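ugh ok fine here u go
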Amino acid sequence: MKKNVLIYTSLILLIIGFIVTYHAIVPKEHIRKNKKAQVYTSEWNGAISSVINQATIVANIDSKQLKSTTNGIFMSDTLTLMIPIRKIRDTFDCSVREYDDDFILIEKGSNKIKLYTQARKCEINGEIREAITNVEELNGTTYVPVDVICQTFGYQYNFDMKLNQASIISDNLEARSIPYKYNYEDEGRVPPVSNQGSLGTCWAFASLTALESSLMPEETYSFSVDHMSLSNSFNLGQESGGDYAMSMAYLLAWQGPVLEKDDPYGDGVTTEGLEAVKHVQEIQIIESKDFETIKKMIFKYGGVQSSFYASSLNNHTGNTKYYNAETNSYCYIGNQKPNHDIVIIGWDDNYPKENFNADIEGDGAFICRNSWGSDFGNNGDFYISYYDTNIGVHNVVYTRVDDNDNYDRIYQTDLCGYVGQLGYGEESAYFANAYTAKEDEKIMAVGFYATGIDTEYSVYICENFQDISSLSKRSEPVMTGKVKNSGFYTIDLDNSVTLKAGQKYAVIIRITTPNSGRPVAVEYAYNEQTSSVILDDGEGYVSLKGITWENTEQKNGCNVCLKVYTDKLTANQ
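structure:
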């Protein structure tokens, strides 16, 4: 009897191995044509997928890697690899949007995929097809079948049963990932136009419009400019203007955003006690005049807050020699610095240079959303030439916006955010913040600024901070990584760290920023605008090698910009 069971088991495993190997090596379009093979394998698909899912699945997609244990990928009953929608955008360098629970739109270059959520069909570049695998939703996460992405975007897919690994390689790594023309107005991704009136609040309007666009079309919000411009940590009135650094500080401190209906614009007062309805966890700053990256960010994430020199800033009419009212086009070439913030919501690489009141070299323009009301430009929008002196110099995009229950608590000392930089004249440095746990909780993530491109980091946790010597007794890093752009990043820990109420702890970061002698972002009282900075609300440290440390509040008169995010411990933890 035992011998028969062994024979049957071996036979089943042999068949499964043959089927999976065949399925993995032969291109999927061939499998569809071979109806006999499709019927034959369908009887075993459930068993095969169960075996695959019991072990860790690894998907190597060009230079990126996803794992079932950390990224949630799994094999469906149709033997199609399923990837969480939140991982599609960066993994395949494309745009992903959900439209009213009706369909998911995935775009790359000139290719468009519509995956319908309520029907077993998809649309590839306008052609309706039957979908082999449905979009699935598990535990609140939407999963997308990888086969249709591979076929449409030109990826070779293979699955190795022995290694439990998928290999997904692009046929053309140089293929253009964005179209030559793109406009949020055509895609339903832009909020209504606003009017700042006579106040100097363009910076807040631009920030919140960009933030709102990053949530669309899945979520539609109208955030309060009054609250951002009046309930921040800076000493500036609404008539005095502002900049994106103020927006970043306000949002990253969870001071906002709040809803427009709860703090309406233009009454000169703000509503106290409002809590942020979203938590901004990542803001990227794009390098000056890096137009391709600006376009990619618009395509993949949301509108890009930028600025230009507006010579008609005082009357908001655009009556200036730099503006062509007939074509709603603007181009300034000169030495004046930018003085007005707008949101780039699209582009047209072939927009005619003849439409501008300037003698410029070539075609092309960004499509920008202004805050001067719908009477300006084309219902509030206008074109700025690629050759404009200031457009694309300062660029901010909101790349991670969470629900406000993502973490229970934030520990921070930098309400004014990234004001200056600290270092020792070398590309690398260590910095740390010590905090005391307010209750039984666990560290879930840490957040800090990258002050330049290609910044590398290592995260250490000192669970029992006694004094400054504790910082030199750290163990191995709990997280390491690299970010491409400067900006603020939240790093979620693979394993949370448990704390008891009253326990003093520290988070340490080793940071390396190429070509920077001061890689550490700090907050200090630079001018009247930042004169409200408090230095006795934390305990920050900095070190060159991580051996000898100095207190930044005492030695340098500044706070290091390093936040910690925690969750409360539940009863069974």
